[in-house]
Amino acid sequence: MLGWEDIRAEVLRRIRARDWPPGALIPGEEALAEEFGVARATVNRALTSLAEAGVIERKKRAGTRVAELPVRRARLEIPVIRLDVLGRGLPYDFKLLADRLAPAPVPVTARLGLPEGTPMRKLETLHLAGGRPFVLETRWLNPAVLPVPLPDFAQVSVNEWLVTHVSLVSGDIAFTAEPASPREAEVMGVVPGTPLLVAERTTQGTGGPVTWVRLAHAPGHRVAMTF
Amino acid sequence: MLGWEDIRAEVLRRIRARDWPPGALIPGEEALAEEFGVARATVNRALTSLAEAGVIERKKRAGTRVAELPVRRARLEIPVIRLDVLGRGLPYDFKLLADRLAPAPVPVTARLGLPEGTPMRKLETLHLAGGRPFVLETRWLNPAVLPVPLPDFAQVSVNEWLVTHVSLVSGDIAFTAEPASPREAEVMGVVPGTPLLVAERTTQGTGGPVTWVRLAHAPGHRVAMTF
DNA sequence: TTGGCTAATATGTCTAGACATAATGCAAGT
DNA sequence: ACTTGCATTATGTCTAGACATATTAGCCAA
Questions:
Q1: Which helix (H) or strand (E) holds A185?
Q2: Is there a contact between A224 and B173 (Cβ–Cβ < 8 Å)?
Q3: What is the pLDDT of residue A148?
Q4: Is A54 found in the same domain as A98?
Q5: pLDDT tens across A183-192, in order?
């Protein structure tokens, strides 16, 4: 018997084969259901899935059409750094370089939507892969929204503790290429000005803005995605 | 009446509120259906959606549990460069800098899974935003899988023509930070060695490997995603 | 103790039918 | 010509019930 995944595959095949070229209106659910000999709900399941993937566009009354400029979506799975390192077959370790309470700089408070000069906890962590610098993490934490008790961040990586102890609701991440600052160069053992892949993230939790973090990756780092 | 999105929202709320902490087994579909006064299929729709989002993990017979280390997934929407530029409120233009047939270098053929030395078409395109260099695109095309007739790539951007004329099946994309080569520096009007955000993509089509492309972005470029 | 079979169980999927909702296009009235 | 409103239609969602399938716990035998 045909399942919704079979229907999905067949519809996708026809789109790729240009039986149904970009922009074309494809048959309605009822018609497809009859053609494949399944219930309409099964066709709906298949088409819903294709719509989520951006391959088709569906509108009530107007029908379903093949996307004109199919939006290609790549999914990035953001791992806990420890698992990222272990996944590369290297032993993981980290060092807490700094930990202090201070008024957060404007770019940080602005992105998080906090008032200027809010006191936040600044943590600087160097993540090591096989003993070599892997990522330099500069993080500003909003103490107001953290559950107590806080652990000793020299023992437990902030990165990991946050994931398991704070419910993260939403956030964003941006990648840029930046020259290593003198400080970064020293800590990571590279020449100042070396291009580093930098990821900048802000995260919101249920109780409000949680953290802003900048991850400066060692030279040569690749962030890979599949689509 | 409660819809599947309401169920989804309520379950998510309970997980965030730690009524059901990470690792916990949540009630079965039948039980939830009864609690909310809906059919099991409706609960299933909600939970399936949460599972796709990585919030819960489901196994037959074992039940549904809250994910221990919730995988955070960010979705990157890869736009056609023209739309990316226009979306930033700048006028778009491009220049075809080079176009020749040559044996593709090993890194390219290797990634695409083609035999060494396969003759491919190399296209170098400079994309401009508001008259200033935006992205330098270096592309190797596999002529064997392209539909005829080919357009004049000085008139039509390869980027865009591919999206509408070739069915792209799968691919991968990777970001790195690299120093501008002398050639790149000259074309983009920057100092050699300037950190550039580089995206490298390979794409497979129905007929086989289609293209390998390297996009070197102007300094300061950000690739942003939300999760 | 260990290995393998079996029954129980939770999720996965399907059906057939129903009603909800949004968007379109035509028709009527201004 | 223009607007308003209504009927039409395709998708969206729900229900109740059924069978499929994976996985586990427990039992029994070697």
A1: helix A182-188
A2: yes
A3: 87
A4: no
A5: 999 999 999 9
Residues 6+ apart with CB under 8 A from B135: B81, B126, B127, B215, B216, B217, B218, B221
* Domain assignment present for B74: no
Same domain? For A26 and A85 the reply is: no
What tens digit of pLDDT does each residue of B129-141 get?
999 999 999 999 9
**A50: domain range?**
4-66
A71, pLDDT greater than 80: no
Q: Mean per-residue pLDDT for B118-125?
A: 97
Is the per-residue pLDDT at B128 higher than 90?
A: yes
Domain boundary among B66, B99, B118: B66
Of all residues in chain B, the percent with pLDDT exceeding 70 is 100
Q: How far does Cα A216 stand from its chain's mean position?
A: 16
CATH number at residue A32: 1.10.10.10
Judged against a pLDDT cut of 80, whether residue B71 lies above it is answered with no
Contacts of B29 (CB under 8 A, 6+ apart): B40, B43, B44, B47, B64
Least CB-CB distance to B76: which of A70, A73, A171?
A73
Can you give the C-alpha Rg of chain A in angstroms?
Answer: 24
Whether residues B86 and B59 share a domain: the answer is no
Please indicate if any CB of chain A lies within 8 Å of the CB of B191.
Answer: no
Read off the amino acid at residue B177: A
**What is d(CA A116, CA B4) in angstroms, rounded to the nearest whole number?**
41
Among the candidates A66, A91, A108, a domain finishes at A66
Number of domains in chain A: 2
Indicate which of B14, B42, B162, B176 best probes the interface with A, i.e. most A CBs within 10 Å of its own CB: B176
Check whether residue B93 and residue B37 sit in a common domain. Answer: no
> What is the distance between the alpha carbons of residues B116 and A167, in angstroms, rounded to a whole number?
50
**Nearest residue, CB atoms, A206 vs list B16, B69, B219:** B16
CATH number at residue B127: 3.40.1410.10
Q: Describe the crossing of helices B4-16 and B29-36 by its angle, rounded to 10 degrees.
A: 110
Nucleotide nearest to A25 (CA to C1'): D10
Any CB–CB contact under 8 A between A16 and chain B?
Answer: yes
B222 touches chain A (CB under 8 A): yes
**Helices A29-36 and A40-52 meet at what angle, rounded to 10?**
120
Residue B108's Cβ-count burial label (10 Å; 0-12, 13-18, 19+) is: buried
Take residue A35 and report the two structure tokens written for it.
């053609």
Rounded CA-CA distance A57/A53 in Å is 10
Counting Cβ atoms within 10 Å, is residue A180 exposed (0-12), middle (13-18) or buried (19+)? Answer: buried
Q: Give domain status of residue B190, yes or no.
A: yes
